[in-house]
UniProtKB/TrEMBL annotation:
The keyword tRNA processing is assigned to this record: no
Similarity comment: Belongs to the hyi family.
Domain Xylose isomerase-like TIM barrel residues, every copy: 56-278
Keyword Isomerase among UniProt keywords: yes
Protein name in UniProt: Xylose isomerase
Gene Ontology terms, MF aspect: isomerase activity
InterPro entries reported for this sequence: HyI-like (IPR026040), Sugar_Epim/Isomerase (IPR050417), TAT_signal (IPR006311), Xyl_isomerase-like_sf (IPR036237), Xyl_isomerase-like_TIM-brl (IPR013022)
Origin superkingdom: Bacteria
Length: 289
């Protein structure tokens, strides 16, 4: 790329961002996509969780997502988001440990989902992320996945009764989660199909899927055709930063989501490369096509 063309593209991107600046946001708004700020990875230096929510709203995000609900003042989080008109799109109901892929944890999963559904009700949140678990020595992938299916089948009626969708997240084992038992779209979709509940789908993290299998748009088509996608997240690669910092053409991917008539949220589960305001501008700029 010549310096002249680089300068032209930078100027064009800045102009595009500037065209969306509003009085209530220093960074602008998304053009097509409903973005949710992951306030665990954004504003990570801010110890006051409520101020993280305020920071996300100030940047123009209409939604937020976070990880565990334990240790958070749920009433204060709910009140703050209502005041800021922020939608809580999803939070983590079941993490990496103990593993959902271990049969001895089945009842723990069901009980925890029940507890988390009560939290979701207070937060007016309609989705909760669940994680499969790391490899168990001596146990095959097939056996672990069968155990995950069994646990989710047991938990699904609890989620259905509460009207809360469980979104199972497949990881990548090449960069971030070596030793995890679920990665790639094919086995993840197989699990969702076997569970057979409209309240159990996938948290389709484009970052993990890119590292694991590539062909993001092609696999998205397969995921939507199978009615397996409940939620979408993004981050660029390498680095797990905002769009434009790595090799993924997120404008193309976000356009594909619109073409596939996805109207749900896209969580920005990425670490800002420089600062939050710059990262937010890049997220919104990626939504231009």
């Amino acid at each position: 790329m010549t310096p002249t063309r680089r300068h032209f593209l930078a100027t064009a991107a800045t102009a595009a961002i500037g065209s969306r600046l509003t009085a209530d946001s220093p960074t602008g708004k998304a053009n097509h996509t409903k973005f949710a700020c992951n306030v665990e990875m954004w504003f990570s230096k801010e110890k006051n969780f409520l101020k993280r929510l305020e920071g996300a709203a100030a940047l123009g995000f209409p939604g937020v997502e976070f990880w565990p609900y334990e240790g958070k003042d749920i009433a204060a989080v709910a009140d703050t988001c209502e005041r800021l008109k922020l939608t809580i799109t999803q939070f983590t109901a079941w993490g990496f440990k103990p593993g959902m892929n271990d049969p001895k944890n089945k009842q723990k999963v069901v009980d925890k989902i029940g507890e988390a559904c009560e939290v979701a009700k207070k937060l007016k949140c309609q989705m909760m992320c669940v994680v499969a678990g790391d490899d168990i020595p001596g146990v095959s992938q097939e056996q672990m996945h069968a155990t995950i299916i069994d646990a989710l089948k047991a938990a699904a009626p609890v989620a259905e009764a509460a009207g809360v969708m469980l979104i199972l997240e497949a990881m990548n084992v090449r960069v971030d989660h070596k030793g995890h038992c679920l990665y790639g779209s094919a086995p993840a979709m197989k699990i969702v199909k076997a569970v057979g509940s409209k309240f159990v789908k996938l948290n389709w993290d484009l970052y993990h899927m890119h590292i694991t299998e590539g062909d993001l748009c092609g696999h998205l088509k397969e995921g939507f055709a199978a009615d397996a996608i409940g939620y979408v997240q993004l981050a660029d690669h390498p680095g797990r930063h905002e769009p434009g910092t790595g090799e993924i053409n997120y404008s193309r991917v976000l356009k594909e989501l619109a073409t596939l008539k996805y109207t749900g949220w896209v969580g920005t589960e990425c670490t800002p490369a420089k600062d939050e305001a710059t990262a937010a501008k890049a997220v919104f700029a990626a939504d231009e096509w």
